[in-house]
Amino acid sequence: MADDLQTQASPPVDRFGREERGADSARAPAPSAAPWHHGRRHRGGRPGAPGERPEPCYAALDLGTNNCRLLIAKPTGSGFRVVDAFSRIVRLGEGLIGSGRLGDAAMGRAIDALGVCAGKIGGRRIAHARLIATEACRAAANGDHFISRVERETGLKLEIVDRETEARLAAVGCTPLVDPRSDGAVLFDIGGGSTEVVWLDRVDTNDDGPPAAVIRAWVSVPLGVVSMAERHGGVQVTHENFEAMVNEFRPHLGGFVAAVGAHDCGRLHLLGTSGTVTTIAGVHLDLPRYDRSQVDGTWLGAGQVAAVVDRLLAMPFAERVANPCIGAERADLVLAGCAILEAVRRCFPCDRLRVADRGLREGILVELMRADGVWNRSVEDHP
After folding, report:
1. What superkingdom does the record give (predicted)?
2. Are residues 130 and 222 in the same domain?
């Protein structure tokens, strides 16, 4: 499958794949993060009078090769507030690289998770929703059949999006974390079956919402943590295995590197979104359990990233399983993700990496809300 190169002018996550709890009382992001609301009074949020219809929400669902994730949110004065969330590792793409098809067990796991999502969506007054599926459904010979089965069994109508859309949504979701004093960021979204890399900048908008994404170049590589781990192994990973993964991935970035051109990496920074980089941040911080409020927006230096990758490479598999920021569901995938990250770092040896615990779902919500003009209204005008 050829790479696609184009140029043009999220609540706490359970690291063990269990569903997220509702986030009405979610902890505020850490001071280093760019929160979705910036200290202004929330629009709405008042308990309704008896018989009054609840405020409308927006829903975003992302069914990937590895995870099924849902966010339901309400607009605020300058962003949105998550009111319910769900995340479960389903490994929809398990075995896809060998068979070219989605397996029965994998489809069953995904449909079970989507049934939970359908219940959460059905329990809210939803103004608009977008429900997307990505690489596993794009690549599988029976992807369309699976989408039809999902609609029959859960009532959810999923949209298989192309890679350009996937890259754009990740960029929109992560744009608030781009350092406005830099020359932009090299954003990478390491998925289960594909990886999107974007040269991203930000620009202020004419409304009160989040800054808008400026995508200068992007590439989608048909390799992710699931496909790399199945190809090279994820349980026992030697330095030789690790370098083999780096060397397989790195050539796919050649066209993107050429599109970015000669650039002072001191003026760029890396911006990573995915379980790989959030895991690296959690391990670096030695968190006793994963905590989004401490991870989202965290800055890591190049030496700190390298130290964590070396530490993970030296860990026996059982120790990775026992680590509270990795867990059994990710222990065989994290080093494949680290190899993809290392390939990006070798192409763009930037001094700084910012970690994003946000991405596609947040991008969907921003696009839906901006299309409705929710940030064009004054706080007092919002219901």
Report:
1. Bacteria
2. no
